Amino acid sequence: MATQILGDSSLRVRVYRPEDFRQVEAVFYEGMAYGLGSPADHSARAFYRHPFSGFVYLSGAISAWLISRTKHISPALCTAGILSAAGGVLAYVLWIPRQSRNMMVEYCEQCFREDLNDITKHYRLEPTDDGDYQPTSSSCFWVAEQKSDSGEGYKIVGCIGLDTPDGSSVGEVRRLSVLHSQRGKGIGSLLLRIVTAFAKQTKLTSLRLTTSTFQPDAMRLYTRLGWKNTETVKFKGNMMSSQFYLATMNYFEL
Predict the structure, then answer these.
(1) Domains in the chain, ordered, with CATH?
(2) Residue ranges of the N-acetyltransferase domain (predicted)?
């Protein structure tokens, strides 16, 4: 595939090779669980506004106020009690992003037990004579590479898969992820355009994907590129995921 230039950076997209695994793993985990703007990040921000969180904040404030108004205790005990109430609220505030991250790490681990466990096998990629890989069906997995600052070699900054069961005319877009430091450069758009072009080439009739309300940037990107939100359902999980909605989106313009 020819190198494509975005802004002042050299970027190319190619079919995945087995030696890319560790870089793809790092890109996917950052995109979903660790990076700014990841679902874990948005989940934590949403839970800070959850009614239960409001109850914890209020309880801590009331506790501190009651302790401060209690008579017949020493100033030292009063201070200790107020600090304990404040410490409890602080511990809760720090617990929220950790739990949100753990929730998304579990999701990533599930992905790497499924299709990402053996990408070449699941997406039916076979080696070519020159050492690259090529799709053998209407499934494929791509990586986006950006030239290093030194100008020598490339680093994987994004990935995406198209998963099409045998005999199906509908492909599922999966595992789109871009490093946070590389977002806003058109990489996600480029990856999606390559997927739709490949889908047309392999005679698919439509595409679908599942995203979430904790991925607002991705949802805006899909909408801008012509994807339609056809269903939104509430995710059934623990209280941490109580504001998590899954959205099914379709692309019919093939």
Answers:
(1) 4-43+110-251 (3.40.630.30)
(2) 90-251
